[in-house]
Design brief:
With 132 residues, the protein is α+β, with helices and mostly antiparallel strands. The protein is built from 2 helices and 10 strands.
Length: 132
């Protein structure tokens, strides 16, 4: 299984600073990317390459001023996604990177983001206990 990780941070309005793509990232690579996006507007994307079409998946972490949103796209052609479920968040909708999401999809604990990225890079999936 080949894993490719990339992403960006917003350097100013309308401008993005892109990270170099990393093939088969390890914990240090994940930590480096997380450090750069943690308190800014940014995104980390991890995709599987060289896998059967039925296993096609990607994991995206959006960050927005200390809040995170994880989206696991299980299959590109079906639109089935899983996210973290924050039971303590208000029952309302919020804007993240210009799109509307449920507030309960957002969280502040960077350890959750790290665990999901690490698990996806190692296994090509994230457990259902972490992403519903």
């Amino acid at each position: 299984m080949k894993v490719i990780m990339g992403g960006f941070v917003a350097s100013e309005i309308g401008k993005r600073q892109y990270f170099p793509q990393i093939i088969n990232p390890g914990p240090k690579d994940i930590d480096d990317f997380l450090l750069q996006v943690a308190s800014r507007h940014g995104c980390i994307s991890v995709e599987l390459e060289d896998v059967p079409e039925e296993a096609d998946a990607d994991l995206t972490l959006f960050s927005q001023q200390g809040e995170f949103l994880l989206v696991l796209n299980e299959k590109w052609d079906t639109g089935v996604v899983r996210t973290f479920e924050n039971q303590t968040a208000p029952n309302e909708f919020v804007e993240v990177h210009g799109n509307v999401f449920h507030a309960r999809d957002l969280f502040r604990d960077i350890a959750i983001a790290r665990a999901a990225l690490l698990e996806f890079c190692q296994r090509g999936d994230v457990s259902r206990t972490l992403l519903k």
